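can u do me a favor
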């Protein structure tokens, strides 16, 4: 698949190529949140939401499904990234990406062409000025491409309470008040293997 054929990348795949497994799991958590399938719990943790997964507009990614299965009890992002089933889902994500020439063997880091394409996507899809009028797919793509900046703009309360972003501190005191509860799929980008150019808070 290195013949210039366009490969459709989902946001969690873009995040994996751009920033690695933690970023991919972050996108999966936000995907679940936007679907109503996850919510913030104790500060710095996420738990499964009460929405019916069958009612989603289309199935969540296998990675998001693995994350959701782990959320039968509250878990922080670090715990999710280390969970065996989530790690397996990330490993399985890597297989088609490697076959498409986007990850190099044996360490499975992003290829130069993949990194260049992620940079191109960031230029093509800059951080939105605000969150109004964005679809969930557009929010996920922004989080995949712009990480913490997009989280703070698009899902600020959830991102803070769930521990997806660092807490801002002033004078040694966190600006985030302790909370036991928080608030409430994914389009992608296109990648040309030839190296050219993918809920409210």
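np, heres the sequence
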């Amino acid at each position: 698949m290195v013949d210039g054929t366009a490969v459709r990348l989902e946001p969690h795949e873009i995040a994996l190529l751009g920033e690695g497994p933690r970023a991919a799991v972050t996108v999966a958590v936000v995907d679940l949140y936007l679907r109503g399938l996850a919510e913030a719990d104790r500060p710095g943790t996420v738990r499964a939401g009460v929405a019916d997964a069958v009612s989603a507009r289309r199935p969540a990614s296998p990675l998001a499904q693995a994350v959701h299965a782990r959320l039968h009890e509250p878990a922080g992002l670090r715990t999710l990234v280390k969970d065996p089933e989530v790690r397996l889902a990330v490993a399985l994500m890597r297989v088609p990406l490697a076959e498409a020439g986007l990850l190099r063997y044996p360490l499975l880091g992003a290829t130069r062409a993949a990194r260049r394409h992620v940079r191109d996507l960031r230029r093509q899809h800059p951080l939105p000025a605000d969150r109004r009028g964005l679809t969930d797919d557009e929010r996920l793509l922004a989080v995949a491409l712009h990480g913490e900046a997009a989280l703070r703009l698009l899902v600020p309360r959830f991102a803070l309470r769930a521990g997806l972003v660092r807490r801002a501190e002033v004078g040694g005191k966190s600006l985030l008040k302790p909370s036991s509860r928080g608030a409430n799929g994914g389009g992608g980008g296109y990648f040309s293997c030839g190296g050219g150019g993918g809920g409210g808070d």
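The chain is about 45% helix and 10% strand. hope that helps!!
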